[in-house]
Amino acid sequence: MTYLNIVNNVLRRMREEEVTSVSSTTYSKMVGDFVNDAKRMVEDAWDWSALRTTLTITTTEDVFNYTLTGSQNRIKALNVINDTANLFMEYKTATFFDEAYLISDPRKSAPTYYTYNGVDSDGDTQIDIYPTPDKAYTIRFNCVKRAADLSNNDDTMDIPAMPVIHLAIALLARERGETGGTSSPEYFAIADKYLGDAIALDAQKHPEEVIFYTA
Predict the structure, then answer these.
(1) Which of 121, 134, 169, 171 is 20 to 30 A from 43 in CA distance terms?
(2) Are residues 69 and 138 in the same domain?
């Protein structure tokens, strides 16, 4: 479903005229803003399988800082693998890296640890790795990568559309103050129902992530 389709779905349910472009009217632009607000909320509510991807970096000898190109600082790491050395890399704190690089003499070998270190000029997440690479290694960063806001009429989403549509309606109903029959809390309850059902359907793809084990 395109950005324009979603906006028109919301407009119809708000008893408004459909538009040929999201930017057609001031109101449709506002609807588009609420759609993007709703999209972000839905994306952040669950680690959607459709948003799971792998970002790959290839290390250079003696270089320990790398950029996860395209991450835009909206990622969640699932696991990090040094594919060349056949090992899972472990997260360590910034203090650990300060100790390793600034206080002690850093080792050179296959990278085993990683940490986050801000963003670059493009807004992409940067990571540091340790030990310092002694050669080229392929690092696979398996993560959940949230998408950029919708902007063009033909832009599409990978997450389920119905929770986004109904959450946008709820946000608009709250902003408007009246909708001719359904209250704002009722709209939010409907949106929560759609979101909960969508998460339940997606969660069955990764059942191990929703099982609680006691110690």
Answers:
(1) 121
(2) yes
How many structural domains are present in the chain? 2
Do the domain assignments include residue 214? no
Q: Report pLDDT digits (tens) over 141-163.
A: 999 999 999 999 999 999 999 99
Q: Please list the alpha-helical segments (H only) found in the chain.
A: 3-13, 26-45, 94-98, 161-176, 184-203
Residue 150 lies in a domain: no
Label residue 11 by pLDDT band (50, 70, 90): very high
Distances (CA, A) of 196 to 13, 20, 164: 21, 31, 12
Nearest Cα residue to 158 out of 36, 49, 68: 49
129 and 80, same domain (yes or no): yes
Range of the domain at 66: 51-145
Largest Cα–Cα separation, the chain:
70
Q: Which residue has the tokens 């085993």?
A: 112
Please state, in angstroms and rounded to a whole number, the distance separating the CA atoms of residues 199 and 30.
27
